[in-house]
Amino acid sequence: MATLTTRTGQTMDRQGMESMLRRRMFYTPAFEIYGGVAGLYDYGPPGCALQANLIETWRKHFVLEEDMLEVDCSVVTPHDVFKTSGHVDKFADWMCKDPKNGENLRADHLVEAVLEARLEGDKKARGEEVQDKEVDPKKKKKKVSAEVKKLDDALVKEYEEVLAQIDNYDGDALGGLIKKYDIRNPATGAEPSPPRPFNLMFQTTIGPSGKDHGYLRPETAQGQFLNFAKLLEFNMQNMPFASASIGKSYRNEISPRAGLLRVREFLMAEIEHFVDPEGGKKHPRFPEVENLELTLLDKHTQLSGQTTTRKITIGQAVKDKVVDNETLGYFMARIHLYLERVGADMSKVRFRQHMANEMAHYACDCWDAEMQTSYGWIECVGCADRSAYDLTVHQKKTGAPLIVRQVLTTPIVEQLWVVDIDRKKFGPHFKKDGKLVAEAIEALDEPQLAKFAKDLEDQGSFTIDVPGIAAGNATVGKDLVKIEYKSITKHSREYTPNVIEPSFGIGRILYSLIEHSFWTRGTEGGDEARGVLSFPPAMAPTKVLIVPLSKNEEFSPIARKMGHKLRQMGISSRVDDSGASIGKRYSRNDELGTAFGITIDFQTVKDGSVTLRERDSTRQVRADESRILEAVQSMVNGSKSWKDVEGELPKFETQELEIREA
Amino acid sequence: MATLTTRTGQTMDRQGMESMLRRRMFYTPAFEIYGGVAGLYDYGPPGCALQANLIETWRKHFVLEEDMLEVDCSVVTPHDVFKTSGHVDKFADWMCKDPKNGENLRADHLVEAVLEARLEGDKKARGEEVQDKEVDPKKKKKKVSAEVKKLDDALVKEYEEVLAQIDNYDGDALGGLIKKYDIRNPATGAEPSPPRPFNLMFQTTIGPSGKDHGYLRPETAQGQFLNFAKLLEFNMQNMPFASASIGKSYRNEISPRAGLLRVREFLMAEIEHFVDPEGGKKHPRFPEVENLELTLLDKHTQLSGQTTTRKITIGQAVKDKVVDNETLGYFMARIHLYLERVGADMSKVRFRQHMANEMAHYACDCWDAEMQTSYGWIECVGCADRSAYDLTVHQKKTGAPLIVRQVLTTPIVEQLWVVDIDRKKFGPHFKKDGKLVAEAIEALDEPQLAKFAKDLEDQGSFTIDVPGIAAGNATVGKDLVKIEYKSITKHSREYTPNVIEPSFGIGRILYSLIEHSFWTRGTEGGDEARGVLSFPPAMAPTKVLIVPLSKNEEFSPIARKMGHKLRQMGISSRVDDSGASIGKRYSRNDELGTAFGITIDFQTVKDGSVTLRERDSTRQVRADESRILEAVQSMVNGSKSWKDVEGELPKFETQELEIREA
């Protein structure tokens, strides 16, 4: 695997970056003064602002742009809902217990870690070079130190085959592997217990009885499905439409690692787009995106053991059936545009198709938008076709009609076998069995009706099984029943919509975005490298740093007024009137990703001019305050670039000297 | 109690309003197709948009305006945190069980309901008029039907006294009342079990061991306190400062009622303002608000059994010590301004001071902003001085320094007794006891030091108890120790900040705001009254309804482009191109609180002019699309009123006819 580089071509220094993120309080382990809890994090002010900007942009890009129906549903959810959805039975990982120290181990991670270590030991014994594997952070495991020991060639092959399909084993199979290869907990040498399923939902009880079990939702989707009938009504029966929801979800991971990428509490933004399954799932706005080029890694490529991506327009991909349908393709394109808009490095974004064996229990096709980071390729957005699975199971369980009744502008004429029971004669003939016999006849399907129609014609009667009556069957004569092949005109049809679900892990996007934005500025004096986070202005946690040259008291009211003006324009700013040098103050804000700096100096007091500094280039322009604020506004709302502004306003160089000296 | 009226002076029809809110999907019981769960609600599109507007305005009004440090902390919280904060032991209600049907009853609600019913029965027996009591929704109980039966005068007085202080009884006292007055569950006639505490936090376990107990937070505050040291560091050690957090909190109510006002899952927005306890808790921006008049109901008035409010400037209230300090007063004023900004009817807002017995275990002074609704006066914002309680207990438990080290510009000189131990002689003299004796000396407080200094002077030695050594005490001579009264200069001081906490229940504000905004428009034809929600434009879930006059296909691209332009301006709109009459379409949107309607008709196709309708007055103006959109923008951002716009643009009357006819 090639070494990952920053946007400026530097080798990615994750440790340095993470230390900077902690120092600047982007995020911090939750409850740290109590020793912390794995997989729970708090966002500090810059992380929280970045998250709010991601959400605000998401709302504009998806909800407002497409008139989606945003809802905010309950996180605490009663047992029955997740029993029906399948989560109670299937949303689990396999777990072994170490009988010696009581440690809980994820079975697949254990097998993977031990076999990989053995293969590494084998390579070392053979004198081969050991390369760092591309690590999947979703299952990042403790590094097991490898014992240098050569293995049989056949065993090496077996191990490799096991590792290639590690996601496909169930608990029994994992237990079998553990026994077969004598896999033990590396920490203790103990043989682990057989794997048992551990459900990943946090459990709780609702109300005081202690009997009403509930869960914290692991996704926001179910709340949207349960409200489908009301949402359709709200949308005045118009199809297709989408609902959307932004909120926290929870997964009680067995042993979370990899920082913000695998956590127990996380913010999601999910869209459920409801579409008629007939007619090829077309999307009216598909033409707007069909020429957009996406980077795809399809399932066939992966099945052949490759990870080669290709660039292809989404129009072509749908045409070639690489992507199943227009609606799925439309949302993939919209996801691409969103990631671009929030500042992802698009050379580090790809769409990977799920292989059949890795799809969730409800999905019928799925593409993940993955972002490349130092942890490998990270699934940040799932885009799944959940088919009619959820609406169907909830309707079946509750009887609520989670369907669409479509009035047909052109009525459909169908040829059907139709039964006509002569009720007057039927009752007296069958007496107390009458009801059950009639029900059995009405439950017949088309082929059965066709057969009995022939029986009536040929023999004047047919014999039908009726389990509930004494005789077990009944013979029905043509005096009692007619079965005819008729034209039936339908003026409406009923269907259960299919669901296309783009599902965004906001925390994963946030972390990946930080990696995509991070680089360091070497200092000429050979000082330590200084971090920079090159967020687009609209994403920057703070847009403007207001920097009075010194603590001179003439500067303070100017700074305060400028902050007020910027707030009126909807632009966040902070004043740094600390005694630190201007260079130090800018450095700190480069690490915070603050997009611009405005310096107030003695010239400002005289003529109202200020200096505007751009974070990435550190170049500066100088003009009247009003022109500078206007320039900032146009760069924040995206109507101008820094290059445009540099072209329009006079360059300023004096202070840069001071910054270098800092 | 006077009948509550709408903003237009109509009698408040809650049932009618709530039916409208459900029909328009402002909110809906969560999991309704599964039978629902008490106290859990979902917000539909208009409720969700209203909530988002309340939050966005909150962020601008508080976080941005005051440079607060917003954080987003974990909801799932380990046991130890809430053990320390006092919630595990004290955050409970008293509950009885009915042994017959297993029903759980809130003990105070049970006593209250039964005694009130008996008093009502007594009144009826005496032939007195029975008035509906002002109901506190926080403890809204099942109505118990009254048996008509005269009581002894003395008993009536006893009951009344019990009811007046129902909030003050603990479990034992409530159990005593239940026994004494033979209070039974009205539903079954059974004698309930003695009250036991039921903790209101939802419990869960974190991770797979089953041993790590946790809770869903009942407030966002603790996460902010635990991060205090990091936030102070982020704020570059500057005091005072505030953190803020917006997020869900949870309370596992025993039997939630009263719609959105008492729920188990709710959105909070909380500020923790950290302030030096010395110097009278001044606030630098207090002068900006000191002339603002608030409506106050102080504790003395309440203690005298009155509910008479008075209007007073916050400056005067702080001066008179009605409100304890400037910082508390500053935030009360800011809360007032926020409620005004989001559209509360300020004649239905008051600040009520907590009485000593109703304050939370951590608070030392507290004022609630209450909003009047058909459920009574509702606590919507708490504004408490939590003193140094939380930071102190967490520091004590964890040892983390949750303090401020203030560098003193003017050093403090203190006269102190200072011990000087001559280590060279001390060790050899006391041998193995030396360490413990020295520790005992160093632990002495000022009065003890003064006494021993005198002993040294008078007798040449002092005798000190040292529990850990064989002799139990030690005699220390003046050759070993000097104790002198000296001047000590301190260049810094350490203190634990006090916390002023404005805490907003967003759901309660949302509901109260809906009641304050609701009224009905009588129709001239005697039709059913049509609901209107008069939100300020900035709060309206949708700002603009775009209404093509008919389904004519020339209108559709104009409507689409107009929606696009409005989105670019950051203004939410929806197109209603259904076949319904214009009047019907406007009516529906009056119920949704949509602020404006823009009609596209044949004249639009010809000359680009459109009609703009204002929701509350139903009056219309007509002008070029660009001028109309500009007018809408200025009304949404608050720079112009409808009156201003009416003064500038030509009036339009033709279509109003059609609306009346609808």
From TrEMBL, chains A, B:
The Aminoacyl-transfer RNA synthetases class-II family profile domain, residue ranges: 201-541
MF terms (GO), sorted A to Z: ATP binding; glycine-tRNA ligase activity; transferase activity
Residue stretches in coiled coil: none
Bias type Basic and acidic residues, positions: 124-137
Keywords: Aminoacyl-tRNA synthetase, ATP-binding, Cytoplasm, Ligase, Nucleotide-binding, Protein biosynthesis, Transferase
EC number: 6.1.1.14
Main localization (coarse): cytoplasm
One cellular component (GO) term of this entry: mitochondrion
Pfam families: HGTP_anticodon (PF03129)
Statement: the UniProt record of this protein carries the keyword Aminoacyl-tRNA synthetase: yes
Biological-process GO terms, alphabetical: mitochondrial glycyl-tRNA aminoacylation
Subcellular location: Cytoplasm
This protein's record includes keyword Nucleotide-binding: yes
Catalytic activities: 2 ATP + H(+) = P(1),P(4)-bis(5'-adenosyl) tetraphosphate + diphosphate
Region Disordered, residue ranges: 124-143
Assembly: Homodimer.
Family: Belongs to the class-II aminoacyl-tRNA synthetase family.
UniProt name for this protein: glycine--tRNA ligase
Origin species: Cryphonectria parasitica (strain ATCC 38755 / EP155)
